[in-house]
Each structure stands twice: as structure tokens, then as C-alpha cells.
Amino acid sequence: MALRTLRKNRLFTALNVLGLALGLAIAACLLLWIKNEWSFNRQFAQYPHICRIVLDRPLESGKVERMSNAPNVAGPAAKENIAAVQQYARLLANNFTGEAFVRTDRKDLITDKMVWADPGLAEIFGIKALRGDMEAALREPNSVAIDATTSARLFGNSDPVGQTLRIDRRDALVVRAVYPDFPDNSTLEARIMGSFVTEKWANAPLVWSNASFETWLLLAPDADRTAVARDLMGVYEKATPSENRWFSLWLQPLADAHWGSSDFQYSVSARSGDLRQVALLLGLAIAVLLIACFNYMNLSTAHAQRRAKEVGIRKTLGATALQISRLLISDFLKWVLLAIVLAVPVAWYFMQRWLADFACRIDLQWWMFAVTGAGVVVVALLTVSVQSVRAALINPVQSLRSE
After folding, report:
1. φ, ψ for residue 21, nearest 5 deg
2. pLDDT truncated to tens, each residue of the chain (403 aa)?
3. Residues 33 and 152 in one domain
4. β-strand 173-179 against 64-67: which pairing, if any?
5. Quick check: helix, strand or coil at residue 357?
6. Do the domain assignments include residue 266?
7. Angle 91-72-53 (CA atoms, 0-180°, nearest 5)?
8. What is the Cα–Cα distance from 142 to 16, expressed in whole angstroms?
């Protein structure tokens, strides 16, 4: 019966199916983006215990400038004086921007994601080497680690470990490790990481006066982040005369690094998110689904009215309101399922095309489309049920008289 109805009402079928399919495809794409934002940094095993030193600098205007950079002494001082700090790692963007001109005997390239880092970075974020030794690459002077994409671009299929490259006008650096590309949902995004000790000016002297180094701390599992920040502030005040103190500091958990950094100055990472934007797009995804379902409900109402004579005859022949409601609902749900079947491959295709432009990307998973489809089915079921029950309860005498 459903197939016969579809053939007899082609325009109605097309409007229902295409409208729902378009709404489902758009909502699936938006929800995929939201899922990517929500998953930021959760791939790091020690995610709950990682934090970043943040400085608040009062300005003459009365405003506060917030910086994700700290003095070069902050990390070492935290580990030396505070028992809850297990490890630290400082990051310095090459040329303060991350830009670097990289040269090898084979090929040259320009990147904007080059940093100098302490060896503790590998321990804090669990960065494992695909080739070589990550800890040695960030510990030894004139050493560097590169990600897999940069390795392929510079050295092709050959093993880059032990080979040399030059950064800008510096002396040759030895490649000691290759690490996996950081995923698209990671605050860390460096393509090349040189050993922090190579930048001699950044290591000595250790002072509280120059804040140019993004500093990450690994805290003990039972550590109180607020207490650690208070203790570190005490170390700073003890080492610095009151007239030379120009900032206060606090610790930002890695969980907030993506959402809570949009107003930070001098951040090494450009990947900062906006929770308001996520909420807006989530609302948009829900609105798209609701509009598609309401449009479906209006069309279904018109179609149910056109079937009034059929309903009247069935009731006259002894069909109950429940049987008629089930019949109408099953017919309408077939169109919903058809819309889902059409929408999923369309959404899958366009999302794959979009994600193909990213070197690091998340995987499309079946449950993303299943959740969206289930939401459409539930909303459509609720809206259609109301119309179907109303149609089934109409007095058959009235419906046949009107025909």
C-alpha cells in the first residue's frame, strides 16, 4: 500500500523525502563539527592532570591582558619547589611566530608551526616516536623532531633519523625522531620541534621578567590545581621585589585550553574555540531538524485530509481507530526512513570531501548519523502520530459526506 501511495503522490513524496533528507544531511554535518570541537585534547592519556601557566597583566587602562606565556624560570621553579608538579615543558615559537624556512639537501619548505620544546613535553603529552627517540630529540643540543607529514615532504620514504636540516640561518640540526601528526582536535599542532636547549638565549639566565614561553605542567593525580598556583605565586613573590612584580599567575587545565583561550595573547597554538559558537551551531542543527520535521508534519496533514474518504470507508467496514492510526503512521515513517537512506550517503560524501583538505582529521563514525537519524524518527513520529490519531478519530459519516 505504501509503494502505491508513493507512486500516486509523487510530488508529495518528493517534497517530504527531499526536505527531510536535506535537513538530516545538514544536521549531521553540523553535529560532526560539534563533536570534533568537543573532543579537543581528550586523546592525551594524562588529560586531567595537564595544565598551562597563564599570566594576568594589569594595564593602565584598568583592563587585564591575559597571556598564555610565562617566564623561562616558571617551569623549572615549579618542579623544583612544588612537590605536586611532576614535570614541566616550555614551548617557544620559532621567531616568536612559529614560521621557519627549512632546508635539506633534497628539498626546502616553509612552515608556520615550528617550536623549541623541553624534553618533558614528550612525557606530559605522551608523544611516542614513530622512529628514533623523542626524549633525546628534545634533550640534546642541535636536535630536532619532525612529524610524519614533514618527514615525507623533506625526506620521502627514506629514514630521516640521523640526517640534518637547517632552520633559517642556524647551524645544522640533527633529526633524532619522527612523531605522529598531531590530530586536528589537539591544541598542540607543531610540525617541527627543536630542543629548547638549542636556543641558548632562552635558557640563561632564568628570570621572572621576560614572559615569552608557553609552559605546561604535569600535576600529580591528587594535586589541587588552585593550591599549586598559589604556591607558584609564592615562589614568584619570594624571588621578585614587590616593585618589580608585574603580573599574577594561575593554572589553566588542558580541558579549558581550547574553550577558554580566545582572548589570550601570544599563544603558541592558533586552535582556540568559542563555546558560544558551538552552542549556536548546536541550536542551528536542532532548528534545521525541527523545520524539516514541521514541514513534514504540514505536508502530512494535507495528505491525511486527502485520505479522509479512505479512512471513512475503513471505519465503516469495522477498522478501529488504533488500526487506522497504525496504518497511517507506518506509511509516513516509510518516507522518513527513505529520507534517511538518501541523506546519509550525501552527508557522508560531502563531509569526506571537506575533511580531505585536512592533514589531520577525525574519522566519520556510523553513530554520528545514527543519532541524527534517530532524532528525526522521534520528532517525525511525534508529529505524525498527532495527525494520524486525529484523522482516525474523525466521524466516518462526516468524512464521507464531505466527499
Report:
1. -65, -45
2. 444 555 555 665 566 666 666 777 777 777 777 777 788 899 999 999 999 999 999 988 889 999 999 999 999 999 999 999 999 999 999 999 999 999 998 889 999 999 999 999 999 999 999 999 999 999 999 999 999 999 999 999 999 999 999 999 888 999 999 999 998 889 999 999 999 999 999 988 899 988 999 999 999 999 999 999 999 999 999 999 999 999 999 999 998 888 888 788 877 877 777 777 778 878 887 787 777 766 666 666 655 555 656 666 666 666 666 676 677 677 777 767 776 777 777 777 776 776 666 544 556 667 767 776 777 677 667 766 766 666 555 655 555 455 5
3. no
4. unpaired
5. coil
6. no
7. 70
8. 65
Q: Which residues contact 135 (CB under 8 A, 6 or more apart)?
A: 119, 122, 123
pTM: 0.73
The DSSP symbol for 274 reads -
Domain identity same for 279 and 315:
yes
SS3 percent helix, strand, coil of the chain, rounded to 5, is 50, 20, 30
User: Do 253 and 225 lie in a common domain?
Assistant: yes
The angle that helices 366-392 and 308-316 make with each other, rounded to 10 degrees, is 70
Cell of 191: 610540525
Peptide bond between residue 221 and the one before it cis (omega within 30 degrees of 0): no
Instruction: Give 389's contacts (C-beta < 8 A, 6+ positions apart).
Output: 321, 325
Asked if the structure places residue 265 within a domain, the reply is no
d(CA 185, CA 273): 10
Q: How many structural domains are present in the chain?
A: 2
Backbone angles phi, psi at 256, to 5 degrees: -100, 0
> Do 101 and 215 share a domain, yes or no?
yes
Range of the domain at 339: 2-39+275-402
Residue ending a domain, choose from 257, 289, 321: 257
Inside any domain, residue 233? yes
- Whether 270 is covered by a domain: the verdict is no
**Using CA atoms, how far apart are residues 130 and 150, in angstroms rounded to an integer?**
13
| Beta-ladder partners of 236 | none
Helix axes 74-81, 225-239, angle to 10 degrees: 110
Same domain, 294 and 228: no
Residues 76 and 159 in one domain: yes
Whether residue 288 is found in the same domain as residue 181:
no
The three-class DSSP label of residue 129 is coil
The phi and psi torsions of 23 (rounded to 5 degrees) equal -60, -40
Q: In this structure, are residues 83 and 144 in contact, taking their beta carbons and an 8 Å threshold?
A: no
Q: Are residues 116 and 223 in the same domain?
A: yes
